Amino acid sequence: MTPPMARLAVLVILCFSAGRAVAETSVPTSSDAAPAAPAAPSPSAPSGAPAEPFAFADFTWLTGNARTKESPLSTPAFTGELRVDVDYVHDFNHPRDHTIVGSSEIFRSGEVQITQLGVGGDFHYQNDRGRLLTQFGMYSQTTPRNDASPARGQWNLDNAYRYISEAYGGYHLDVLNGINLDAGIFMSYVGLFSYYQFDNWEYQPSYVSSNTPWFFNGVRIQIFLSDKLKIEPWFINGWQSYGMFNQTPGLGLQVLWRPTGSVSILGISTGARPLSGIPIACASTPTTVSRSSTSTVRSRSSARRRSRSPSTRDVSTAAA
Questions:
Q1: What pTM does this model have?
Q2: Domain limits at 265?
Q3: Residue 182: which H helix or E strand, with range?
């Protein structure tokens, strides 16, 4: 092809390409515009769907709540969890055998000890739910030792539950803002502190908190009346016990209201019989925690329960 013919061919190709681009990007006039196609339905939840409980703010600042906000082990059906609590404690009383008494969190002086090694996580598939977390280390010895219920009857309940911190299964109902029905072994609904030290503001809770229930074995119903209010009745074997001390089960109730992201109001009541048979009835004054306050006011019955960073389908408070 001669140079003039080559230039002519290039010119024709450029003109064809430019005309094609203009035709594809030009806006049709009102006379020849095609009617707009209907918009595709939005995949998001309908506007009338209930809001997720306590999801309107970040409550990880509360004591008894882990500060973690995401998990690298999260899948659509399971969110994994690993907890390792290793401590070194020095007692100025210098116990000869290194034993520390009067605490449910620290147990040996002058030694490095694994207090808790927990492996497990949360199961969540459609409306089915559950949680499992192991309990290795010092907790596997000290927690069962404080429960006298295995001495009643046969089967070694302390050995059966020794290495289990939490184990329950349940079902989620899409009613109101959600209802959870769970059965198994849970962290206690009583109070503010968590059984797991990483979740708390300080490592050693007060003496009163340290001697209130860390766990319950029974059934709970979490009723979310709104995204700011939860009512949680419980039916349990006893006051931090694997079994039942006598013929009377324990009953309890937690009411949690979080009107804003800076205020959490918790009310608890419980009734149970310890080994002595004397009934325990605690109707607690509501506990209020404010983000701006410099101190926390707790009633005598305040205790702990685990409160992971609140999952929208499982919001409990911590044990104190």
A1: 0.70
A2: 60-290
A3: strand 179-187
